[in-house]
Amino acid sequence: PMIHFKTDEEINTMKESCRLAAEVLLMIEPYIKPGVTTERLDQICHDYIVSHGAVPSPLNYRGFPKSICSSVNEEICHGIPSDRKLRNGDIVNLDITTYLKGFHGDTSRTFFVGSPRKKSEKLVEVCRQALQKGIECVKPGARLGDVGATIQQFAEGHGYSVVREFCGHGIGNNFHEEPQVLHYGNFGEGVEIKKGMVFTIEPMINEGQPDLKILPDKWTAVTEDSSLSAQFEHTVCVTDSGVEVMTRLEGRPLFYL
Ligand code: MF3
Ligand code: CO
Ligand code: CO
Question: How many Å from the N-terminal Cα to the C-terminal Cα in the chain?
């Protein structure tokens, strides 16, 4: 088991895949409206990715049947696009991973469908900020436990809980590589962060309890108590002095909410 450190050249190539994944999230936003099916969103993303010379990484990954993951309301992650119509007040996370020039780029965002409920707005905003604070911990010499502890403290401080069963991950030529990036933990513990590491941070934050169950489709993770769950994800690389968010579009905020 080992971490694959990337050269500057590999990171530059990987940025192209990451940029494409980020562009998909920007492109798809206007289509997210009451009445649209998640299958339709999947189709549009699939066509965009393929037309840009890339492959959607989720498609056929360990048998996953679609090109993106779409997780609505109490769905935590790995929701399978279907004929389900989105409704006003829903929240939906779209998780986009592209494979371009030999590298994966992975990013996700939770969107509001129509006009958000106050409690959805609060949860989604805390999740977004949790990711931001996690990213701010990344620099050479820090530890992955610092990232997890920061996210956990922030989310729990707002009365929410952090999902334990899924984590961020190293990424590169493989969709999921070492190290695991937990969204909870203790400061000063875990793997030391070093230049050339590339990994995702992707906290899943629940309104209620952290517990989950997997639906009979074998993929969709839902909160056991049916409470709302939000998620944001970026792919980051460690530089000499700190961190670069590879799935952030140039000239745009970390998240264009
Ligand atoms: N994109 C997800 C992640 O952030 C993984 C999806 S695996 C799939 O790691 F098979 F469900 F697509
Ligand atoms: Co993802
Ligand atoms: Co990921």
Answer: 38
